[in-house]
Every structure is written in structure tokens, then in C-alpha cells.
Amino acid sequence: MENKRRISFEFLIILFFTVCCILPAAYSSIPFYLMIAAYLFYIVYLFLKKDRIISKKEILILLGLIVYMAFIYTVLTDTTTISEEASNREIKQFTSKLYQYMNMFIPILFLDWATKRSNAFERKAIIGSGMVLMFYTMITTIRELMVNARIAREWTSFEETAKENIAGYTFVYAIPFLLVLFVYLLKNFKKPYNKVLAVLAIAFQLYFIVLSQYTIALIMSIFGLLYMWYIKIKSRNIKILFLIMLPIAVLAIPIIIKVLAARVPSEEISIRLNEVYDFITGSNKDGYNLNGRLNLYGKAIKAFLFSPIIGNRTLDFDGHATLLTVFARTGLLGGIPFVLLLKNSKTAVNRYLGAEKRDYSPFWLMLLLMGFTNPIHSSTSVMFVVLFLVPLTMKQMSIERQEIDGKQE
Predict the structure, then answer these.
(1) CA-CA distance, 71 to 224, in Å (whole number)?
(2) pLDDT per position as a tens digit, 383-401
(3) Residue 21 counted as domain residue
(4) Which range marks the domain in which residue 126 is found?
(5) Beta-carbon contacts of residue 20 (< 8 Å; ≥ 6 apart)
(6) How far apart are CA 334 and CA 351, in angstroms?
(7) 213, 275 contact by CB (below 8 A)
(8) What domain count does the chain have?
(9) Around 146, how many Cα atoms within 13 Å sit in the side-chain half-sphere?
């Protein structure tokens, strides 16, 4: 890795994907077949590179699994998002799923650039661009939330052909990972002004998550922070005490939220916290609550058990959980390769992070929990943040910390 301020062609490619994967307006403005072409171009570009860490075999396995998942969905399932009268319906279904899985797993290849062919200036530029785009999207969404409190949820249900489509605002699911990342940065920053900025960023993200009405995102944030705390505990006795107290703390969450709702000065936040309380306790009258979610998850499990090998061509419900619906829709034929994609991605991240891989474990736990509770496959930013932006930031922090320690010696 060089420290020169040069800008490489590969950096520009990764910057392009950063914008497209994070910024909904960019995502929705580029035809998906052009994005597929862009992904394929980068795969070929990386395949022909000699100075890379990832092997050609690993690249081919990744691409093969992605193509297989798109194929198996096309063969084994019916889609409800493409009209039955549409021409070349199977091809459209295949390319749609291909695009979806490319969005999810191709970002893992960008770590090869970060490892072998990037310099500090380029890495910081990608990290900074990613952070700015995430916060810009949150700020623009908050403006709309002030007008319509449910706008973020309404955006997610827009049709692909709708003029107002902003590519599904499920980007909110990526915020918990960003929030936990800033807590990690807060603990590792040396300079006071960096710590202040991290605290402000954490407060803003918590405010956004509560305001946007994505209750699961708030719960995932709490679990991620608790696990980050747990892995830092060195005493075995304290760890045991932590595990004993954890169920009590989880049961106390609704009470804490209710108390906070009554104490916060902001009426908007008070309303949102009460909605979170209603979701958890099942008090929500419109059916949007934890009991309703658990019912959906149960249906997905039953659907898988009904046809465990080839899955179910159609389902009369939305399982609302990627790791459950993959098995319910495609059975073991699709579920096992999907798990393999996740496993290979985790291996690639651990290889890149090296000694820092233990600090990454809370993000992996959050991803699994999110996969069991939410449709992470429909969000372009979740996997990009988890598989690329988070490890890139953590590694850069480690490099800079080592440089500072080296100078002090």
C-alpha cells in the first residue's frame, strides 16, 4: 500500500459503486442492466489483475453462486413483481435476482483493492464519501418525515416503475451498523474533537432510527452495542454475570422505552418511542407489532418444512426475513448456497481484518439477526456497509493507530 495521493482507475470504479449502493437517488436513476454490466466489468477487471489477494477460483465461485441463486429463483419460484403479461418474463426475473445478489455480495471483492492496490488517501476518500452519503440520505429523509411521519415506510412500497421511486428506503437497516461503527470509532479515536464528532454522529443516528419508525433497526443497534461490550469484558465472572443479567435487561427494554417516551422534551420523539413500545408489546392496533412479525416468521418456517428440498413456488405471505424466506421459497437447493455465500463473505472479511476480526463480530451477529428478522436482500446499502464500508473503516483505523504508536516509540 502506498501513501501517495494518487487517484487510480479502480478507485473511481469503487467510488461509483459507493454512490450507487448508498444514495437511493443514484440507485434508482441507473437501469439495473447497466449496473449488472458494471459489476461484470469489475469482476473481469479484477480477474485479469495480477497483484491481487483473492484467487481466480474464489472469484469464479462467488460469481457462480450468485448466478446459481438467480437461476434457482427463476426455476423454482413465481414472481409477483413482474406482470404475467410481460414479455420475456423469465429473463426479467433472472436478471432482477442476479442484480439483487450482485448488490449483496460483489462488494466483498472491493476489499481486495483495499488490501493490495489502494493508498491511504483513496481509502479515506471512500470512507468519507460513504459516510457523507449516508448522513445526507438521513438528513433528506428527516425533512420528509417532518411532513409525513410514515413517509419512509411508504417509500419502501413504491413500484419499480413509479416516478417517485427512490429505490426502497430500506437503507434504514444499514444505520444500526453505522451507529455501532461510530461507537467503535469513539473508543479508538485519540483526538478529543474526533470523539466529539463521533458522539454527535451517534446521537443523530439514534434520533433518525427512532424518528423513521424502524423498530427492528433500533433493537438491532441495542444488541450490537451489548455484544460489543460483552467481547471487551476480560473477567470470566463478569461475563457470566452479564449473561445472567442480559435476559432481565431485554425484558426491561419496553419499560425503559416507555419511561423515555414520557421524559424526552421532543414531542415527535415521544410519539415514536411510544410506537416502538406498542410494537414490542403488541399494543399496535393495525397489526404492525412483534406478534405479527413472529407470526410471519412462523409461517416461513412451516413453509420450508412443508417442502424442504425445492421450496414453494408461491407463498401467500411475505416472510419479511431474508434468511427464512430463502429457505421457504427455494428450499435447501437455494438455502445452502445462500449460506455458503454468507460464509465465504465472512471468511473474506476476516482475512482482510486480521487481528481486528474479533472487533468485527458484533456486526456479523447483527447481520445474522437482521437476516432472520428483515428483508436485507432488498436493501442495496446494508451489505455494502457491512461487507465493505465497516471493515474498510476498521482496518484504516487500525493502520493509523499503529502509525501513531510507532511514532511515539
Answers:
(1) 34
(2) 999 999 999 999 999 998 8
(3) yes
(4) 9-232+289-408
(5) 26, 27, 30, 35, 380
(6) 26
(7) yes
(8) 1
(9) 8
